[in-house]
Amino acid sequence: MSSIAVREPGTPTTAAGQFGVYSEVGKLRKVLVHRPELSLKRLTPANHDELLFDDVLWVERAQWEHDQFVKVMRDRGVDVYYVRDLLLEALRTSEPARNQVIYAVANQVTVGAALAEEIRIMLGALSPDRLATYLIGGLTISELDPDWRRLKSYSLIAAGNDDDNLFVLPPLPNQLFTRDSSAWLFGGVSVNPMFWPARRRESL
């Protein structure tokens, strides 16, 4: 969860604006959250270590607890913003932003030269809502439209594996921890590069 605390009376002001992180214990006005969803459902006993979780989670319970926490904050006047909603807004309203995100997740470094262009074309054809879901929740071979299942043959590892649950795009279950990947300072924001491969796409 990423939060923005409002300056308390008597603290210095800045020309950049009134909002900023002036105190870790100041009054919370706005908060950025991510509701547990598909990315956590992707956790399995085989992959949870790689995705930086100690175990698989009871996702429905996590969703209920998250919703209750959000309700408490809203009841106290906090403006709550969801990561997925903001991502979806950017994908719907800005073609350059959409293209930049697609290129960032599908390039020679992230998916390999053989797959990069094909995956970019596939992602570019998705609706903004579906694209937002897969960018955070991950995308498996089994979820590809039939016309795109041929992508499996582009990867020697995937082609030699009968498991259609291999990821074309890995999920981002750690997106829950929104205050790790960005820091809101005075009138600006610091987008932080993440150390672990499982978290690097969160900074996009």
Describe this structure in words.
- There is one protein chain.
- The protein has 8 helices and 7 strands.
- The protein is an alpha+beta fold and 204 residues long.
- The chain has one domain (2-203): Pentein (Orthogonal Bundle).
- The chain has a 3-stranded mixed β-sheet with strand order 1-2-3.
- Helix 3 (83-93) crosses helix 6 and helix 4 runs antiparallel to helix 5 (113-124).
- The two termini are 17 Å apart.
Treating each run of at least 4 consecutive H or I residues as one helix, how many helices? 8
The total count of strands amounts to: 7
| Main pleated-sheet profile | 3 strands, mixed
Uncertain runs: 3-15, 156-162
Biggest sheet: strands side by side, in what order?
A: 1-2-3
The CATH class assignment is: Mainly Alpha
Q: Per DSSP, what share of the residues sits in E-state strands of 2 or more residues?
A: 5-15%
Q: Return the domain count.
A: 1
- Overall helicity: 25-40%
Order of helices and strands: EEHHEHHHHEHEHEE
Determine the CATH topology. Answer: Pentein
- The general outline is globular
CATH architecture: Orthogonal Bundle
Sheet/helix structural class? alpha+beta
CATH superfamily: Arginine deiminase
